[in-house]
Amino acid sequence: MTNAAHDLPDTGDRQNGAVHVFVYGTLRAGEINDMMRAAERHGIGAPVYIGTCTVGGRLYDFGSYPGMVPGVEASVTGDVYRIPAALIPVLDEIEAVYPGEAGLFVREVHDVACEGATYPCIVYPVSASAVSHLPQIPGGDWVAYRRAREASAA
């Protein structure tokens, strides 16, 4: 799913180094790993928001972050951004995705329909076996779920 010659996923315009990403959890705007802040901290150009949409899958509660298992039986809410390719290693580090190492998250490319267009997007899902003991997030929206959980705990 990556272009070995450029070490970039085939997710966008490689000539100017732009790719697309679908984020559904802590990488969303205002969340603890907000991509905008991560890009700024590393001196990388700001991601460009495309829109909010849903993709097929189920979202699970890992406590301080969610994990998505792709599929068609439910939907997960997230945001599509156009990002500079230089941001990919930063996102990989946040998600603990390292070449040749097995981890909780993996980097995949999925087609995501958003705002009337389809984008090949980087997505960071987890395996179904990683969530077998975890509660599913009703409605598939991490931000709404986290806010409701924090409000009920207060």
TrEMBL record:
<dbReference type="InterPro" id="IPR009288">
    <property type="entry name" value="AIG2-like_dom"/>
</dbReference>
<dbReference type="InterPro" id="IPR013024">
    <property type="entry name" value="GGCT-like"/>
</dbReference>
<dbReference type="InterPro" id="IPR036568">
    <property type="entry name" value="GGCT-like_sf"/>
</dbReference>
<dbReference type="GO" id="GO:0016740">
    <property type="term" value="F:transferase activity"/>
</dbReference>
<dbReference type="Pfam" id="PF06094">
    <property type="entry name" value="GGACT"/>
</dbReference>
<feature type="domain" description="Gamma-glutamylcyclotransferase AIG2-like">
    <location>
        <begin position="21"/>
        <end position="143"/>
    </location>
</feature>
<keyword id="KW-0808">Transferase</keyword>
<protein>
    <submittedName>
        <fullName>Gamma-glutamylcyclotransferase</fullName>
    </submittedName>
</protein>
